[in-house]
């Protein structure tokens, strides 16, 4: 296994600090961070699943919002062997690379987006052999989305969209792209909820109409949710219905 030397240029509350670590040439940024934490146990950062399903390890890597667990070191290391790491923007800072997600989660809680499985059967008539094949991890021909299945909610609540959003940094009352996208999701599938009550939460100057459609949220989303598209669709829905009434 080939190892490389990586210099992590990390923001530490009030100053930059460098850590030099040795990692595999196939390592991810999170691997390098964990190696740095072995040198200094006080280094604060968040991580959990290591495979982009929890959204915990979001950072600004070389000035761009990414998940550390799926960002290969070789893709972001510069010619000097350095990677710059900063905490997400537009969140209260706890320390180093660790931010407080409480305000973000409170925004999402207002929408009360129901939990959904990543896929569910569209028809009870699907052949059981096809069902087994889709969920057989050993199979080499597993389709990303099999015919007969419908892919649903993908948001992993990583906060990258909020950090990248130019409006979130200028309006502390702004709902934010993840929250607005969640409203769009509820609108498309209310599940016995009052659509008007949900829309009223964001149909105001600090919500849906504060978005400037910069599309930065969709650019950095690691799960393909495309918050900008959801926000524009929600605007269209409200404008259409207001015009009709």
Structure description:
By secondary structure, this protein is α+β, with helices and mostly antiparallel strands. It folds into 2 domains: 3-99, Beta-grasp domain (Ubiquitin-like (UB roll)); 102-116 and 153-244, Fumarate Reductase Iron-sulfur Protein, Chain B, domain 2, CATH 1.10.1060. 33% of the residues lie in helices and 18% in strands. It contains 9 helices and 9 strands. The strands form 3 sheets. A 5-stranded mixed beta sheet has the order 2-1-5-3-4. Strands 6-7 form a two-stranded antiparallel ribbon. α6 runs antiparallel to α7 and α6 packs across α9 (227-244). The model is unreliable at 137-152 (pLDDT under 50).
Labels describing this entry:
about 240 residues, alpha+beta, Ubiquitin-like (UB roll), Fumarate Reductase Iron-sulfur Protein, Chain B, domain 2, 2 domains
Write the layout of secondary structure elements.
Elements: E1 3-12, E2 15-24, H1 29-39, E3 58-61, E4 64-67, H2 73-76, E5 82-86, E6 93-95, E7 98-99, H3 102-111, E8 119-121, H4 128-134, E9 149-151, H5 160-164, H6 177-188, H7 195-202, H8 216-220, H9 227-244
Parallel strand pairs: 1-5
Antiparallel strand pairs: 1-2, 3-4, 3-5, 6-7, 8-9
